[in-house]
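Q: What would this chain look like folded?
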Amino acid sequence: MFGNETPYVSLGENWSVTYAHREIKEKYSILLKPGFFRDLLGQYDVCHFDQPVVMSAPGTDLAGIRLVFQKDGNEIKCWPLKSEIYAGMANMNVHYQMREPITGIFSLMPVLADTINKGENRKAISTLEEINRRSYKLLKNVTNMTLVSKVMSGNLPPLETINLSALTDSLVVSVTTVERNVKINTDIDKDIFVQGNQNFLSTAILNLVSNSISFSTDDNVEIAIKLKADKNKAVFTYRDNSTGIKDEYLADVFKPYFSKDPFADGEKDPSMGLGLFIAKTAFEQTGGRMMLTSSFGNGVKYNISIPLVKETDIAMESSATDFLLNRYSELFVQLCDSCKLPELK
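A: My prediction, written as structure tokens:
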């Protein structure tokens, strides 16, 4: 955990920062100023750090991220624990993403009660529908956070043989049924079998669709999906006409809880930042590799290669009805911000 190969911040004799690991420098640059660590650690003698010492910086943006300090010659080396390096990113957007739908639900309930008392049925129904959508968003956030928590603790969903062709077809039909402004063109070979988890992969693909919708420059979302068998592997290609991703963010987009305003203009709040991490992990569980290419203003393209398995008599199959008839399926949960939700009856 404390090996020299771990990135660190090097502190000179005056305790000022002389080098910053990129993750810290970008995320916490406000803290990385001459004298910061001197103020933090000035009460300690450097000889106290002959062995690694874990500390935190309460009351700062580094609160909750433990830092390791160790003496190395005439310098003190400092680095964050690897397992906690993203805690700051989580703190920045999870609070908003969890609080916003709950606050909306509470604020709408008195409106609903008032409209019911006044007999304004049409307004009552529209208010109830908005409460329903915000409840779905809360369910989405909790679902994805729970899934990511399990993944990061090593508790991956169980593997099973999946007909990826049937799953992809089912998702395409389902998405275009509930999303009127989404057009999906497909080129899919039949009966492509892989080892993975059907629910996990469904969530992964739907997160890609959700990103395409959220990052769309207008109301018309165009997606192209190709799934082809190539010798001993399946090649899954996904392309959209979204606003794309800026070059400086490409290295970070698969990290959990990393999120930026998609239009970089402050008009739209960042998401929770879990979708691409979930997608990459789900495809990697199949033994595959996921790569992303993008330029800002020109959409996003994902190239995913997955090892094939031989056709089997026991394979997970799916149909569009599996997603459309279950009001709490991955379809409605992951697309709740934009899709037509099941009617309240």
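The first strand starts at residue 9 and ends at 11.
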